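Predict the 3D structure for this chain.
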Amino acid sequence: MISTKNKILLLSIIIYSIFFIINCSDNRQKTIARVGGRRISVQEFEVAFAKGKKTKQIQIASLEDKMEFLNRMIDKKLKIIDAYQHDLDKDEKIHETINERIKGVMFRHLVDREVVEKFIPESMIKDFYKKASKEVKIRQIVLKVNKNDSNQVEIKEKAEKIVARLKDGENFADVAKTMSDDKRTGNKGGIKGFLKWGARSSENAMYKAAFSMDEGDISEPIEMPDGYYIIKVTNIKKHPVPPYEKEKEKIKQSMFRLFAKDIEKAYYEYLDGLKSKYKMKYNDEAIDLFFERFTSPKTAQSVSPDSLQKRPARANPLENFSDADKQKILVDFSFSEIKINYILEELKKIPPQRLPRLTTKEQVRSFLDQRIIPIVILEHEVEKKNIINEKDVKKRVKENLESLMEKNIYQLQVTKKVSITDEDIEKYFNEHRDDYKHPPMREVQEIGLNDKTTAEVVASAASKGRNFTSLFNKYNEKKSLSKNKGNIGFVSKGRAGLGKPAFNTEIGGISDPVKIGRTYSVIKVLSEKPETLKTFEESKKLASSRLKRMLISEREKEWLSGLREKINIAVYEKNVEKACKGVYGSDIKMVQ
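Done. Predicted structure below.
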C-alpha cells in the first residue's frame, strides 16, 4: 500500500510531467530569460511588453527594443531576489501593510466561487469570448404573431413549411420578398446585416441561433416575442482578439452588470445562510452600552492660543470606553464572538471626520450587520476553506507581497544610501551654472475684446500708428485689465495664451488677434528683459532635486550592476526575436 507521502510525491511527478508536455507544445510558455531561480516566460514578457501599445507597434518591434524592455523586467526580478535575500518577505511592517489587501483578495475569491460563478461560470465567459470574436451576417424571414392571435400554431406550421421549401433549394431572397412580414428587410431579400455579440445577446433566441450556425446554414423557425423568424447565415467575419486571459476579467465585469441585482441578492442570502449556520446572536445589553458610550462623548477642554478662554475640543467617542467595556460581547457565533474592542479597532481605521453617524440603536445594529459581521464571517470562511492556498489567491498574494518588497528594497539599497549636504548642492549648482537662468521676458500691453471682427479692427488701427492706450480706452471689454490700462507686465514665452504671440511680435509691434477661450486679445510688445542667471538661493531647491535624482540613478545602476555580477542571468535571444509576432495591442478590442 502506498503511503500518503509517496502518493503526494507521485502526484507531483505526474503534474510536473503534464506541465512539461504543455510547455513543450506551447511557444508562449517557452522561457525567454532566467534570473537566478526565477523564470520569465514568453507569455509573461508579451503581456508586459504589449501593455499600452498598439498592435503594429508591438508586432514590428525591433530586437533592440524588446531586449531593452526585457532588461527592465530582469532588473525587477533582481530587485525582488535581493529583497528575499534581505528577508523582507518576513518583515512584519510589510505584512501589516498588505494584510487588508490580502484579506480583500481572499474575500473576493470566496464570494466569486460561492456566489458569482453560479451566475457567471467560466464556461459562459469562454462562450462569450468565442462568439465575440466574430460578426455574423444574416438574411431573415419574419412571420409576425400578435399575442392575442389564436392562430399561432398555424403560423408556426407555415414557418416550418417555408423552412422545408428553402432546404429543398428555393432562393432565400425570393422567398423573403414574398413571404416576410417585415417589409423593410423583406424588400431587400431579407438582408438584416451583421450581428455583433454583446452582454445581452444570450437572451435573444435569434442571436443564439445565428452564432451557433455555420456559413450557408438555414435555421428552423425561431420563436421570438413578436413572431417566428427564419434566418440564413450568409457570411461570418472573424476578428483578431486579445488573449483570453487578458479579456476574461473585462467580459466577467460586463456580465456582472447584467446579473448585478441577482448576484447582490444571492450574496446577502449567502451571508444569511452563514449567520444561521453559525448561530449568530446579538447581545442587546452590550449594543445598548456601546450606543450610550459612543453617543455621549466626554468633553475635553483646550486653551485658545489667542485668548485665555477655554473652549470645548472635538471629542473622540472611541476614547469613552473602559477596558471592561471593550470586553463586552456584541455578537455571538458558534465559532467566536465580536467584542466592543473589535468594532473600536475597525472604527480607528476610519478618519475621525468620516466616522459613521450612529445616532440610534438601529444604526448601530445596521453598522454591525453591514460592515462588521460580514468581515468576521468571511474571515472564518476563508480560513476554514483554506482560501489562502488556492492557486489564484496565492498568485495574487505573492504579487502584492513582492510589489511591496520591491519598493522597500529600493528604499533600503538606494534612497537611504543617498544623502546630500548644502555644500554638495552648491558645488553641483556651480558646475551646472548655465542651467539656472531666468528666461527672457517681454513687457506687454493688452486689449481684451469679445469678438473677432472688433479685434481685427483694433489690430489694424494699432498697426497703422493709432495710440494703443487710446484704443484701449475706447475698445477694451476685459474689466480685469482696466487698472493699468492693459499693461500686464512681463511675460515669459511659456506663459499660456500670450507667451508665444508676445515673442513672435517685434519690440514695439502689434500682434494679430489672439483667441483665448471665448474672447480675443490684441497685444503691443513694449520692451524686453534678457535672460539672467539665477542666484544659488533662487536655484537651491531645483538644484537639490536634480542632484538627488542623479545620485539615486547612479546608485541604482551600481546596485543592479552588483546584482548582475552575483546572480546568474540567461537570456534566450531566439525566443526574444520570435516574441510578440502574433500579439495584439490596445487598439484590438472584443467585438461587443
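Residues 1-25, 299-305 have pLDDT under 50 and may be disordered.
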